Amino acid sequence: MAATEDRRAQELHSTISGTEVAPLYTADDVDLEYERDLGDPGEFPFTRGVYRTMYRGRLWTMRQFAGFGTAAETNARFRYLLEHGQTGLSTAFDMPTLMGYDSDHQRSLGEVGREGVAVDSLADMETLFAGIPLGEVSTSMTINSPAAMLLAFYVCVGEQQGVPRSELRGTVQTDILKEYIAQKEYIFPPAASLRLVTDMIEWSTRELPRMHPISISGYHIREAGSTAAQELAFTLANGFTYVQWALARGLDIDEFAPRLSFFFNAHIDFFEEIAKYRAARRIWARELRERFGARDDRSLLMRFHAQTAGVSLTAQQPEVNVVRTAVEAFAAVLGGCQSLHTNSYDEALALPTEDAVRLALRTQQVIAHETGVVNTVDPLGGAWFVEEQTNELERQAYDYFERIDAIGGVVAAIEQNFFQREIAEASFRYQGEVERGERVVVGVNRYVVEEDSPPPLLRIDPDLEPSQVERVRALRARRDGPSVQLALERLKADAGRDGVNLMPAIVDAARVYVTLGEMCDALREVWGVWREKPVF
Amino acid sequence: MARETGLLSKAKLRVVIAKPGLDGHDRGAKVIARALRDAGMEVIYTGLHQTPEQIVETAIQEDADAVGISILSGAHMTLVPRIVDLLRTRGADEVLVLVGGTIPRDDVEELKRLGVAEVFTPGAPTSEIVEFLRAHAQP
After folding, report:
1. A5: pLDDT confidence band, cut at 50, 70 and 90?
2. CATH number of the structural domain B9-133
């Protein structure tokens, strides 16, 4: 008993992000005015939720991220998930696709179809969505640097199926700023990338009214080791930057702002996460109205997807991850997410098996249908601790906004490695706390067991890569060479000129089976590539 | 950068932390790099998106005692053996090769058979890596 108490005394009482937590909160601890700070759900500043009825009216979208191997295999996984009650699709692409290389590029060696599905051209996209009517599903695509090309492939598949553009629904991640900051899947320098993102926002606003052309993402910032406040602040700062670029393009705020969407992490510190989502909604609504002059309420709504924290999963006693994921998902739901991905318990070891994915989906279904938390909106609203944490995260976010402004904005801060240093600092602090036993990770630094028999893991077929390489080479041989050349010349010409939206050139190139790698190479030629100075 | 030749610095381990392939998940690499530096080692971090050739070149140029390869993309069975082979070809087979990342257990055995000294999977404390290097790398 005494030993247990000693160890308990060693443990920190701050949040996982390092924010101090008092042993008790009362009304005296919180500065709170209902109308100003909370408002009813569906009303400014939307702290309590973006919709009046929230899950009473409609549950969140259960959207499991899937993608591995070939387009045909992923297509089969998509159909499996739809059969099991999933309501939206979410596509994971492999590393070469994310980095804008074709499968037969030298840099793609060993990476084809490993972490997601390999898509080299419209031909692969046709296979990926075969038998899935695009007018009836909403599809999310996790792609950033080459987001415009993948969106173009999707639009072309829609054309082939005879679905009007106005009926295509879904989200393309497109958030390049967090790539420079955290996930590092960048190709072009920041200014060129931002031009491409703005082209997408402008074109989608006109052509794809039900598509979200960008999902401004804190998820990867958090996975890179940031604190909750950093995730919140850097994501919002990135969001403001996209808004500024779109406004500079001459777009009307109320035309495009309703199409901006967000993506946050659902980490293990339960109340801190809930507070983070609530603070995010409040800050976004306030800044969009007061700083950017939005008038339409829909422009003020921060709608977000959440995913449980991959970084919180352990390779040790992996079945315990089911519990972590359930707690994290619960926080996302209490925080008012619009869609949710729950990680599978085997993901610290490999891509998930079908059984593991089903269990993860079942976790959401239990929360939705058995726990009763969906019956009332923002059930934690007014809890002194939660409101104080919401205020605290907001304070910390504004503190960061000032520091970023002082540096000269997000792009300048990226160039000066500001974000990268802040995140590295936070993740190193956390690692130290775990190693000193000040933070307990069950199964890792406490309650460790010897025999860990690994669960059955998903193996990627080693013949996949050569067959995908063969496929893209065969495509190059059979398509119409002169139209490909013409399309690439036009793309380069348009990329070299200001004031031209690149999307039409990209869609036309996609339609004649110009590959992703060829389009990206054309843009690399015009814009150059980005290299970061590594810091640790 | 010229290598110091004093007796004390001679005992300092030189470690290259490398990120091969296209994967940009560098949290682990950076935490390890910093922990090794804090433990008194000379750490060179290659940065992202390195080819096996670039990593081996850096290891040789930097006169590294060990190379720590951080990889989370699933491409480890392609990229790591190439690095080990290239080190051998270039006559640098005394360089200790460590791997960190999401590596399934079967692959861990195979990588060790191919010449990797140790594989650290998620949750491995940095202190364990420091100790391993001190015990096995030769400055």
Report:
1. low
2. 3.40.50.280
What confidence tens digit (pLDDT) does each residue in B22-45 have? 988 888 999 999 999 999 999 999
Q: How many CA atoms lie within 13 A of B45 on its CB side?
A: 20
CA distance A392 to A30: 10
- The structural domains of chain A, with segments of one domain joined by +, span 45-375+386-435
Q: Dihedral through CA B12, CA B13, CA B19, CA B24, nearest 10?
A: -50
**In chain A, which residues have their Cβ closer than 8 Å to the Cβ of B33?**
536
Size of interface A-B (CB pairs under 8 A): 115
Name the pTM for this structure.
0.93
Structure tokens at A169: 């629904």
- Percent residues over pLDDT 70 in chain A: 98
Work out the minimum CA distance from A433 to partner chain B, whole angstroms.
Answer: 11
The phi, psi pair for B44, rounded to 5°, reads -115, 120
Which residue from B minimizes the CA distance to A431? B31
The CA-atom distances, in angstroms, between B130 and each of A248, B14, B117, B126 are 51, 12, 14, 6
Of the candidates A266, A293, A294, the residue with the CA atom closest to the CA atom of residue A280: A266
> Rounded to a whole number, what is the largest CA-CA distance in chain B?
43
The answer, yes or no, to whether residue A452 has pLDDT greater than 70, is no
Contacts of A441 (CB under 8 A, 6+ apart): A314, A434, B123
- % of chain A beyond a pLDDT of 90: 87
Q: Tell me which chain B residues have a C-beta less than 8 angstroms from the C-beta of A114.
A: 73-75
* Token output for A350: 């490999």
The beta-carbon neighbor of A536 closest among B25, B34, B75 is: B34
ipTM of this complex prediction, to 2 decimal places? 0.81
Q: Which two tokens stand for residue A172?
A: 């393309």
A45-375+386-435 maps to CATH 3.20.20.240: yes
Say yes or no to pLDDT of A415 above 70. Answer: yes
Q: Would you call B102 and A348 a contact, using CB atoms and an 8 Å cutoff?
A: yes
Contact between A247 and A253 (Cβ < 8 Å): yes
pLDDT, one tens digit per residue, over A219-237 is 999 999 999 999 999 999 9
Q: For residue B8, what pLDDT is reported?
A: 47
Residue A355 CB partners (closer than 8 Å, separation 6+):
none
